């Protein structure tokens, strides 16, 4: 009996991606950056913003109450935003 785990599994969304644009499917599911050996992930602006907000609030939750606002909240957010904006996804400038 063949090993069912040796088969290639393809999700519905992957098939849909391929049918919509084979190149986009390749970049999203197959291609790995030669420098990092990681797949490329492009974030939508909404996802980038949500991730920055989430990381900012999550970092506050592990601090003691007295320490939570020793660094201003906008400054904490700006540090998290820098990690995911620009070339890594999200917004490129104030307009887009």
Automatic annotation (TrEMBL):
Signal sequence residues: none
Coiled coil: none
Record-annotated PD-(D/E)XK endonuclease-like domain positions: 10-68
Pfam families: PDDEXK_1
InterPro entries: PDDEXK-like_dom_sf, PDDEXK_AddAB-type
Protein name in UniProt: PD-(D/E)XK endonuclease-like domain-containing protein
Species name: Candidatus Magasanikbacteria bacterium CG10_big_fil_rev_8_21_14_0_10_47_10
């Amino acid at each position: 009996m063949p090993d069912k785990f040796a088969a290639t599994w393809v999700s519905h969304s992957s098939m849909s991606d391929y049918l919509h644009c084979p190149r986009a499917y390749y970049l999203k599911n197959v291609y790995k950056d030669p420098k990092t050996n990681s797949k490329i992930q492009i974030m939508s602006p909404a996802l980038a913003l949500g991730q920055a907000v989430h990381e900012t609030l999550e970092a506050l939750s592990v601090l003691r109450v007295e320490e939570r606002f020793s660094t201003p909240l906008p400054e904490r957010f700006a540090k998290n935003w820098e990690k995911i904006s620009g070339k890594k996804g999200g917004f490129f400038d104030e307009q887009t």
